[in-house]
Amino acid sequence: MILQFALANFRIGTLDSIHFLIPGGAGGGWDGTARGTGEALTKSGLVGNASFENMSGGGKALAHFVETAGKQQGTLMVQSVPIVMRSLQKAYAYTYEDLTPVAGLIGDYGAFFVKANARCSRHA
User: Fold this and answer.
1) Are the beta carbons of 36 and 28 closer than 8 angstroms?
2) Is residue 111 part of a domain?
3) Is the pLDDT of residue 1 over 60?
4) N or C, which end of the chain has less CB nearby within 10 Å?
5) Cα 18 from Cα 52, distance rounded (Å)
6) What is the mean pLDDT of the chain?
7) Residue by residue, what is the 3-state secondary structure of the chain?
8) How far apart are the first and last CA of the chain?
9) What value does the mean pLDDT take over residues 1-17?
10) What's this model's pTM, rounded to 2 decimal places?
């Protein structure tokens, strides 16, 4: 999974607080990544306070984030390959192009695609 944080109208500098919008349920991978990042930012003194909002279900967080961008000062959204892929498949009204990526934290390739007549057809 490639994980990125995206932002809406985010300004670089010293922050009193930061808010994470998490497009998944509490306890999941995106939730843990956001909360771990928030903890690291606050413990390091880069951010005074971190808050978290879980919003799961069918692109709801992505739509909310884009549609309310003007009100999302200091908000980061955790996203990864599923959101990018679903956007490319036109499953959501918005795409990753409506966001500004600010950091790539982890990467894990879950699938490799090759042509049907490729010399390599399986990973062993």
Assistant:
1) no
2) no
3) no
4) C
5) 9
6) 77
7) CCEEEEECCCCCCCEEEEEEEECCCCCCHHHHHHHHHHHHHHHCCCEEEEEEEECCCCCHHHHHHHHCHHHCCCEEEEEEHHHHHHHHCCCCCCCHHHCEEEEEEECCCCCCCCCCCCCCCCCC
8) 20
9) 54
10) 0.69
Does 10 map to a domain?
yes
Question: Are the C-beta atoms of residues 3 and 79 closer than 8 Å to each other?
Answer: yes
What gap in Å lies between CA 122 and CA 124, rounded to an integer? 6
Residues spanned by the domain of 32: 3-106
Select from 95, 123, 105 the least CA-distant residue to 1: 105
Cα 33 to chain centroid, rounded: 9
Which is more confidently placed, 96 or 43?
43
Per the structure, the count of domains in the chain is 1
Cβ atoms 102, 10 nearer than 8 A: yes
What CATH number has the domain bearing residue 28?
Answer: 3.40.190.150
What pLDDT score does 54 carry?
Answer: 92
The pLDDT tens digits of the residues spanning 18-64 come to 999 888 889 988 899 899 999 998 998 888 999 999 988 767 888 88
In a domain, 114, yes or no: no
Q: Is residue 122 part of a domain?
A: no
